[in-house]
Amino acid sequence: MSFVEYGDTIKDGDTAIVFLGHESMFPVKVQHGTVTQTKYGVIRHSTDLIGKKYGSKVTCSKGGWVFILHPTPELWTMNLPHRTQILYSTDISIITMMLELKPGSIVCESGTGSGSLSHALIRTVAPTGHLYTVEFHQQRAEKAREEFREHGVEHLVTVTNQDVCKNGFGVSNIADAVFLDIPSPWEAIGHAKSALKAEGGRICSFSPCIEQVQRTCLAMEEYGFTEINTLEILLRVYNVRTISLQIPDLGKAAEDNSSAGFDSSDPSHQGSPCANLQQGTVQFKSGVPLREVVGHTGYLTFATKS
Amino acid sequence: RKITFEKQWFYLDNAIGHIYGTTFEVSSGGNLQPKQEVEETATETKEAGTDNRNIVDDGKSQKLTHDDIKALKDKGIKGQEIVQQLIENSTTFRDKTEFAQDKYIKKKKKKYEAVITIVKPSTRILSTMYYAREPGKINHLRYDTLAQMLTLGNVRAGTKMIVMETCAGLVLGAVMERMGGYGSIIQMYPGGGPVRAATSCFGFPKAFFDHLHEFPLSKVQSLLSGTFTTETLPADPEENALGEEESNGLSEEKQNSLQETEEEPAAEAPMEVSPAEEQDTVDINAEDGEFKENKEKENKENVREKQIKQWERRKKLKEAAALLREKNADGLIVASKFHPTPLLLSLLEFVAPSRPFVVYCQYKEPLLECYTKLRERGGVINLKLSETWLRNYQVLPDRSHPKLTMSGGGGYLLSGITVVLEKGRPDSEALKMEEPASKRCKLQDLPC
């Protein structure tokens, strides 16, 4: 296993994702002799995991079962230990496309934070690209290094522990793209420009507040960036439900309900129409928005150095 | 070659040798090359009003007549100077607020100073362009939705992907860009052959096509049941309207400030494979323009060529079939005009367990059904039906606000992960998974 290569079977030292059902999962480090507790019972790594195929069903001691999944940056994002506020896959995907990242790209990032975006960037630029990530918080930088090592991607990433606003990215004229997720990105625009290749590249800055965006845009203009564009992306998730709505009793006889030009049941639905009629309901499938959704993560400002 | 773009026409000869991102001004028939930075026309004496209480719309504020303006244009005077003239002859200009003056100048510049920026093709540029200009050809797949697909599908170098698309080859191109020539792609196509008009706009090197395979959808059933042979090939592809496809998405102008940079066709860029050549190696529809020229040549050669083509196609088909038979693909991407349910139920057979799949559909309802059918089939978890909204902002000092919101029309996605399918057991997961309203991890305390 590695985050940049699929493996078929689970091996000692792998990071795997234990999937318990509808969006409840957690990461596990596979080690001989270790056990993991779940609500369905105990998983013994040596016998239950190692040598098994990724994607198989694993039966726990209490007779319950879980699925073991191959790690991906997206699954990691859902399960990583938070050391900071993180970026989620919705923002990450538009960042990746708008920065025009692909295998071989050289990317600069600051701050590393919890490494949610870092893993996705590394995945995209592998096997020939590289990520230079800068984190001014020493413990977080250390932790990130450790994680990259565990996930088999350390050869694709360099973590530097310094302040990007003061000291920049530690590289110059080699990057195809720069990403900033720091409180005062406008102070790092100059450093970003010098990190980018002489022939140009793309930049993105993520900020939750519009005032930060305004200052960043001004700084970008000052440094001669073009194509400045700010956007926001929101994810809407739908639950798939079969809904039944009651037909109001208007004093008509039951059999008139259908002849009143009102189709009271979906023929494709398995429930018998007669039963529906007696209960006086109509059934249909619907994609229902979740009750609580993310309303705002941050603004993404993109620009080009040319 | 003459190119028409936004009511202008020009030749691209002069653009060769410049770096991508260079801005050009159009003269009569050729390209001039102005400087990167146009000096701002400094409005002498920055006079401005504070509000519009005294500005009356009598239609007489502009002292130049239509004919005057036309005369200026016919003289071939620089656009910049025309704008200056218009400002000087506007009686209300000085009474306008500073912001209104800015806006006035911007509007006039847009009209009289036509500039064009030539940029390198990429998924970002092409998907934005297709959505703006030819949404029908790509089933209204908005570019942020395409971005989601590439991420949810974990598309990266070294994978073996199955792609089924009817988006003019745009989705295929996006996947190819992300894979960087590492790994392999099997494109499932309906009818006589895959459409790759948009793919050719990317200007990929030839090596990227070495591991691109295609397989006819109409053969999927026989492949799954084991009765597949290569004896009968699908009918020869019709010409796909490549020429037409290309001319509508050529280059885009940049109206001096920014906004709409667009791509220029791969064919025009230096160091590119010309589309004709490319088609020869990539597309199995070999019968294009070149071929017509050869018509005078002997018929014999024709027949032989056809046989060679036939044989090559058969060989490629065998390769693709072999790859599919392994049933160990690393992912499945579907974005087509067809109903997604049958496609998914069949094509998922070719995907290894613990791999992501993504289906795009312009409408939500077919995906509702697809969701239900996949649940019944089993072998998938973490099914998610989603949509993204995109909002652009105007960010200017004291004038920041959302530009336009695009919702709906960008399409919907159904994504999930494959798991080992237990044959002969009804899906007991359904019980476990179908619990009401899953609690999503909430985003807490936004750092503000």
Number of distinct beta strands of chain A: 14
CATH class of the largest domain in chain A: Alpha Beta
CATH architecture label name of the largest domain in chain B: 3-Layer(aba) Sandwich
Q: Beta-strand percentage of chain A?
A: 25-35%
Order of helices and strands of chain A: EEEEHEEHHEHEHEHEHEHEHHEE
Mean pLDDT of chain B: 78
What overall form of chain A do the CA principal axes indicate? flat
Straight-line N-to-C gap of chain B: 54 Å
Give the CATH H-level superfamily of the largest domain in chain B.
Vaccinia Virus protein VP39
Low-confidence stretches of chain B: 39-44, 235-292, 426-448
Please describe the biggest sheet of chain A, giving its number of strands, its sense, and whether it closes into a barrel. 8 strands, mixed
Q: Strand percentage of chain B, roughly?
A: 15-25%
Keywords (chain A): Acetylation, Methyltransferase, Nucleus, S-adenosyl-L-methionine, Transferase, tRNA processing
Organism (chain A): Donacobius atricapilla
InterPro entries (chain A): SAM-dependent_MTases_sf, TRM61_C, tRNA_MeTrfase_Gcd14
Subunit structure (chain A): Heterotetramer; composed of two copies of TRMT6 and two copies of TRMT61A.
Account of the protein in words:
- The complex is a heterodimer of chains A (306) and B (448).
- Chain A is α/β, with parallel strands linked by helices and 306 residues long.
- Chain A is 27% helix and 30% strand.
- Chain A contains ten helices and 14 strands.
- Chain A has helices at residues 45-49, 73-79, 89-98, 116-125, 138-150, 164-167, 189-195, 210-222, 254-259, 273-279; strands at 15-21, 24-29, 35-38, 41-44, 57-59, 65-69, 106-110, 130-134, 157-160, 177-180, 201-207, 226-246, 281-289, 299-305.
- The longest helix of chain A has 13 residues, at 138-150.
- The two termini of chain A are 39 Å apart.
- Chain B has an eight-stranded mixed beta sheet with strand order 8-7-6-9-10-13-11-12, with helices on both faces. Chain B has a three-stranded antiparallel beta sheet with strand order 4-3-5, with no helix packed on it. In chain B, strands 1-2 form a two-stranded antiparallel ribbon.
- Chain B has helices spanning 66-74, 79-88, 98-112, 123-133, 143-152, 170-179, 197-201, 220-225, 242-248, 275-282, 289-293, 299-325, 340-347, 365-377, 429-433, and strands at residues 2-5, 8-11, 22-26, 31-32, 115-118, 160-165, 184-189, 212-216, 331-335, 356-361, 380-394, 401-406, 412-418.
- Chain B contains 15 helices and 13 strands.
- Chain B is elongated and about 80 Å long.
- The interface between A and B is large, with 80 and 80 residues.
